[in-house]
Write a structure and sequence with these properties.
The chain has a ten-stranded antiparallel beta barrel with strand order 1-2-3-4-5-6-7-8-9-10. The protein has helices at about 1-20, 35-40; strands spanning about 40-50, 55-70, 70-80, 85-95, 100-105, 110-115, 120-130, 135-145, 150-160, 165-175. It has one domain (about 30-175): Calycin beta-barrel core domain (Lipocalin), CATH 2.40.128. The chain is mostly beta strands and about 180 residues long.
């Protein structure tokens, strides 16, 4: 009987963990996510990286500058990790007439793609991540959620061969006066 109960618990867990959010779930939620509006000008974010066991392995602050000309945008991100490492990522973004977004960056394999609905934005891409002298291409499933006009939460799920290897949580803020990382 215990084996049957354990099997039921495991099956329920696998079924629930197999479910992922979809943008449709956020239809009509507010405040509405607007990529060009939110990522325009200066903003700052703070985050943590957690490994597969949910142990926090890194903390960081990132200063971001977003500029737009029509539907073409650039995001300049400077990451300051608490271990002293600094990383720079520059995104080139395009917003299509249907609202979908594509983008590229030096450490992104191919094109990133995303879309918004209600308060959320889902961004999917493959990121080349250096680890202990090696590089790994990890799939990133990025979910951004507007809290209000100045603040946003971001949850990123990183995987390799469909297996979760890390999660990143980031809090964005563009409240004036802006608090910069450095």
């Amino acid at each position: 009987m215990k084996t049957l109960q354990s099997s039921g618990v495991i099956l329920t867990f696998l079924t629930l963990s197999g479910c992922s959010s979809s943008l449709e779930e956020y239809q009509g939620t507010t405040p509405e996510f607007n990529l060009q509006q939110y990522f325009s000008g200066d903003l700052t974010a703070w985050g943590i990286v957690q490994d597969y066991s949910t142990k926090t392995t890194r903390r960081f602050c990132v200063d971001i500058v977003g500029t737009w000309q029509g539907n073409q945008g650039k995001l300049h991100e400077t990451f300051y990790f608490t271990d002293g490492e600094t990383q720079i990522r520059e995104w080139a973004l395009t917003v299509a007439s249907d609202g979908t977004v594509t983008g590229s960056a030096g450490d992104v394999v191919g094109q990133a793609s995303g879309a918004a609905n209600g308060m959320s934005f889902n961004w999917v891409y493959t990121l080349t991540v250096p680890v202990d002298g090696s590089e790994y291409d990890l799939k990133v499933d990025d979910w951004m959620f507007m809290l209000d006009e100045h603040r946003m939460m971001n949850r990123s799920y990183m995987s390799k061969f469909g297996v979760g290897v890390a999660e990143i949580s980031i809090f964005f803020d563009k409240t004036s006066p802006l608090r910069k990382c450095r």
